[in-house]
Amino acid sequence: MKQLLFIVIVFFQLIINGCVTKFFPEIVDDQRLLVVEGLITDQPEVYSVKLSWSIPVGSEQKVRPISGWNVEVHDDLGNIYQYTESPDTGTYISDKETFQGVVGRIYTLYINTLGVSSSHHSFESIPVEMRAVPPIDSLFYEKVTIREGTESRGPVEGCQIYVNSYDPEGKCRFYRWDYSETWKFEIPYMVKNNACWITTNSTKIDIKNTSVLAEDRINCYPLNYITNESDRLSVRYSILVNQYSISEDEYSYWEKLHNITQEVGGLYDIMPSSVRGNVFCTEDPDLQVLGYFSVSSKTSERIYVDEIFRGPVNIYKDCEGESYPAGEFIPGLNVYRWIIFESNIYVTITYYKRCADCTTRGTLTAPDFWEEN
Fold this sequence. Notes:
The chain has two helices and 23 strands. The protein has 373 residues and is mainly beta. The chain has two domains: 146 residues, no CATH class; 169 residues, no CATH class. Strands 1, 2, 3, 6, 7 and 19 form a six-stranded mixed β-sheet that branches. Strands 4, 5, 8, 9, 10 and 18 form a six-stranded antiparallel β-sheet that branches. A hairpin with a 4-residue loop joins strand 4 and strand 5.
């Protein structure tokens, strides 16, 4: 009886498994699409437009920049500002001596392939008005308890950066922020290159819509959260926040991108290629162009964080290696072994260059804006 029952179970498993067919969707994405990334502000700075070809879905290719094209920005007064290609291939830059955005002025981006392609194409953006943006009302941080302390281990703390903004005139209803982080870190060993600085730019999308609120006010927008998993808070940390005014159309664009890039999606969710920007091909409006040409006034604010945060991860805990008597020959020194401690009696080496030279991660030169506490 047991044998018969076993045969029946196996039989049904074979039937069930035979009814299941793995589905491998075919994604056709061979078409090269133009990607445009551009921003102009009302600040006296160099503006850039980056041109590249899209990367096929699932491809491991790197960004494919586009070189040799013609890039211009026109305003509603008939002024034309020519961009030149920088040494960074595919990046076209303005001349800050002759071009600075003005609030209330309308700007249009023009791109063409004249002279560099057998099939000539021209692209342009929808005209965009530069809207005024209020100053950042306040930029501040708060300590966050990640884990309470116990008898066996201490507490762990992180840092949450917030931004407040307020437009009493109620004209700037759609906001976007980006930021640049800079921090000083020190290697806990007696090495020559002991202290360095690192600067990184934000990669996430931060936007806010106040059009449904009674006041054009933003309170405690959580801009950046710093955990204990890095050395950002080990010595001194600084963040520069830029606040932009954007149109409702641009807000919708960033919101769709946010849903794609920062939320968990499935196979049938919205695809990046379906997010329309504001640049189009003049010869063929149906030819899709990715990216956005942004026009915005900008205000900025910087703060420093000097407090001590408890429970940071020790990123140098695996540094110490073997010890040698002072003056003894050390094989592979400065190739795959580096000295992190040296006395008249012995030296201690490490197998990780980052433990003996901070320039593997940062720079020895402090940024121009940096202020020591």
